[in-house]
Design a protein that fits this description.
By secondary structure, the protein is α/β, with parallel strands linked by helices. It has 17 helices and 6 strands. The chain folds into 2 domains: 160 residues, Glutaredoxin (3-Layer(aba) Sandwich); 222 residues, Tetratricopeptide repeat domain (Serine Threonine Protein Phosphatase 5, Tetratricopeptide repeat). Strand 5 and strand 6 form a beta hairpin. The chain is globular, with a radius of gyration of 26 Å.
Length: 425
């Protein structure tokens, strides 16, 4: 069963990726107030229903939004309706929105033929091509525009927007879902660029620090990473925000060693390191370590049947913690259910701990369909068929539409089993 809310909030992969996703260059050439680079885009796929022409240089007096996206990027695709609405809103004020992918033309054109997610099955005209036709959607496979903007500005994640103001300068950089207020102020001539620049510079420094730490981390040189952070602490000059970032990165560097050992199966050493780190960690950091430990231990139980009491104890500690939210409890409980449903001899103490976690998740969010569904599955596993039916019936009523079909199938199975039991009596 696919469950939107049941992906791990912190899996082991998170720790291996945490220092390997930065592609920022050493020199940050583009920032707020910089002159916007020319656009050398290879393919202009749509042009806002012929309302716009391809742009190379920005015209004085006009406002532009240059957005970077990709067909594989879920948040980019989710931002498309907002981009289309934004273009329509500012069309009469001369704003031109230009969306740039660095994929090949065939890939982009193939994506645009797909129906918009959530559209009715028989609505074949509601495609991403139609949706994005409201603005200028483009692709630049040689990545020159990406280099001039994303790399030059030290931006390592998409979607990212650059607002180019009436003077041809970069006014704002950020996620397209956050651009409404700055765009309105830029268009109306009320944008305080200098004030925003101060905050943006701080963010760029943080990103640069993250990049510097990521390099030695990728090669496993923890001491070099910590040395970078020690130097950054000296240069922070007591700035509280910067110090907080440094402390968080120091925690992650130290924790990554334990996470790598968890992945490699060196459980005892990993747990010993986690215990040592936890003594000075903040509550939310301790929670991260506990969750990672719990998943590793559950994995061992699945593979070998060993350490089940330790896994159950760790899950119980997470359940009892005030820091644990309903979503995390749900994720952990569901992972145990999935393992137990495939093994009749699965650890009863761990199933019991998962059931308690699910009960607490429901207590926190009593009308959350997916969470109720998890408890229904575990309750059924424990042999309480009547309560499982009751919980699953309630779960379906409050579940997202995309999950109801699978949930109903499980409820039908429960009712069928109930009917069969009654006939036997």
């Amino acid at each position: 069963m696919l469950k939107n809310s049941k992906q791990w909030s912190l899996g082991l992969a998170t720790w291996t990726m945490i220092f390997s996703c930065v592609t920022m260059t050493n020199a940050q050439e583009l920032t707020i107030g910089s002159k916007a680079p020319k656009l050398d885009i290879e393919h202009w796929v749509s042009n806002g229903h012929d309302k716009f022409k391809p742009v190379t240089e920005f015209q004085t007096g006009k406002v532009y939004v240059v957005e970077f996206w990709a067909t594989w990027c879920g948040p980019c695709v989710m931002s498309m309706p907002h981009l289309a609405a934004t273009q329509e809103k500012y069309l009469e004020k001369g704003v031109q929105l230009i969306s740039v992918s660095d994929e090949d033309l065939e890939t982009v054109e193939g994506f645009l033929k797909k129906p918009v997610k959530g559209a009715e099955k028989d609505d074949t005209e509601n495609t991403y091509g139609k949706l994005t036709s409201a603005y200028c959607l483009t692709t630049d496979p040689d990545k020159s525009v990406n280099a001039d903007y994303m790399e030059a500005a030290g931006q390592n994640g998409i979607p990212t927007c650059f607002i180019v103001g009436k003077s041809g300068q970069i006014e704002w950089i950020g996620h397209p879902m956050s651009m409404d207020d700055p765009l309105e102020k830029v268009v109306e001539g009320k944008w305080d660029r200098d004030a925003y620049l101060k905050e943006f510079r701080k963010e760029q420094k943080r990103e640069l620090l993250f990049a510097k730490v990521s390099r030695p981390m990728r090669s496993g040189n923890l001491q070099a990473a910590l040395k970078v952070l020690a130097q950054a602490r000296e240069e922070a000059d007591g700035d509280a925000d910067t110090i907080a970032v440094i402390e968080d990165l120091e925690f992650r560097v130290n924790a990554s060693s334990a996470m790598n050992k968890l992945q490699g199966g060196d459980i005892d050493d990993a747990l010993a390191e986690i215990d040592a780190i936890s003594k000075t960690a903040k509550p939310e950091q301790k929670q991260m370590l506990l969750i990672a430990s719990c998943k590793a231990l559950v994995g061992i139980v699945v593979k070998s049947g060993e350490r089940d009491s330790q896994a159950a104890k760790t899950l119980s500690d997470i359940t009892e913690s005030k820091e644990t939210d309903a979503s995390t409890l749900n994720e952990l409980a569901w992972s145990v259910y999935e393992a137990a449903s495939e093994n009749d001899q699965f650890s009863k103490p761990l199933i019991a701990a998962a059931t308690v976690a699910a009960e607490k998740a429901v207590a926190k969010e009593p009308d959350n369909g997916p969470i109720l569904d998890t408890l229904a599955h575990l309750t059924y596993l424990a042999g309480n068929l009547d309560r499982a039916i009751e919980l699953q019936t309630k779960a379906i009523k409050s579940a997202p539409d995309q999950l109801k079909e699978d949930m109903q199938a499980f409820l039908d199975e429960l009712k069928k089993e109930k009917a069969s039991a009654l006939i036997k009596k």
